[in-house]
Amino acid sequence: MHTSYNALERGLHRLALDPSSKAAPLWPPSSRHNISLLDRQKHLSIQREKYRREVQVWNAAHPNATRWEFRNALPTAVRWLNQYDREWLMDNEPAAIQAKGVPQDKQQHLDWNSYDLELAERVPFESRKLLNAPGKPRRVTKTEIVRALGFPNGLGTSGNKLPITNAALSKYSESLQHCATRRMWWFIEEANQTGKRWGLAELLHWSGFRQEWYDETEVKAAIESAKRAIGEAA
Question: Closest Cα partner for 88 from 58, 61, 49, 57?
Fold first, then answer.
């Protein structure tokens, strides 16, 4: 792009600079410029507090989140803090994902039998927490429980040394049918609060039920209960 000397000169004069030298501005900044600088500093301070608060609230609600989840959930805050408050961001974002399972430097001195029992005892508790999480129900899988135990990238080869924990994970993870039933009752409760009317077929579809489950005893009982609930709500 070509810019003429006259256009450049006009631009320099607007900036209060002498186009013939590299000296300071021809006149000192006016009070208007000082106020603008103060306004900018105030704006940056407000933005800093705003985005720091967003990060703190999100971290408190997602203590086991990965760095990818964090950055994906708060793209604007992360982008701003990375530019203007990088050191604080690095101190407050989730740690980078480590290798799967127990770190190698800890494995050498680890009592695997005791560690296995300790983890297995935590499995029911973490499962219940996930089952009782607010919002639309999500299936409580082995992967979700393992992440809640503090292994965001899975157990890896460490899982081979944790047979009791693996058995507990199988016991306390959730079947597809159970999750669909929880989701169905969540939809019904939402409908009771909002006045929405569900048809049974629509309700079963959005809850995730499969037709091949309909002959299972527990599924039959859940559907019959749902029919009565829909009738009462209507």
Answer: 49
Mean pLDDT of 201-228: 92
Rounded Cα distance between 47 and 45, Å, is 5
First to last CA, the chain: 70
Rounded (5°) CA angle 137-141-143? 125
Both tokens assigned to 75: 């793209």
Token pair, residue 140, equals 């409580």
Structural domain boundaries of the chain?
39-97, 104-174, 177-233
Alpha-carbon gap, residue 188 to 225, rounded angstroms: 11
182, containing H or E segment = helix 176-194
Give dist(CA 110, CA 154) in Å, integer. 18
The mean-pLDDT minimum among 67-81, 88-102, 145-159, 182-196 falls in 88-102
Contact present, 207 and 227 (Cβ < 8 Å):
no
Nearest to 172 by CA among 213, 121, 115: 121
Do residues 152 and 66 lie in contact, with contact meaning Cβ atoms separated by under 8 Å? yes
**Residue-averaged pLDDT of the chain:** 80
For 8-28, write each residue's pLDDT tens digit.
455 544 444 444 444 444 344
CB 93 within 8 A of CB 60: no
Single pTM value for the model: 0.54
Token readout for 230 is: 């829909």
Q: Give ∠ CA 134-139-143 in degrees, rounded to 5.
A: 110
